[in-house]
Fold this protein.
Amino acid sequence: MKIIDDLAGAIYDVLSSVLWGLSYLAAGAIIVSVPLYLVSFLFEWLY
């Protein structure tokens, strides 16, 4: 049963790191894209 426990722990670690990476990617995209969209909207409104 130790092998199954180790395998489950390894799968959990991989999925956890993938989820953390995707959440950081989504947060970064939101933090960067929202101000860029607002700036482009402002420039479009000005010109």
Summary: The longest helix spans residues 2-46. The chain has a mean pLDDT of 93. The helical segments are 2-46.
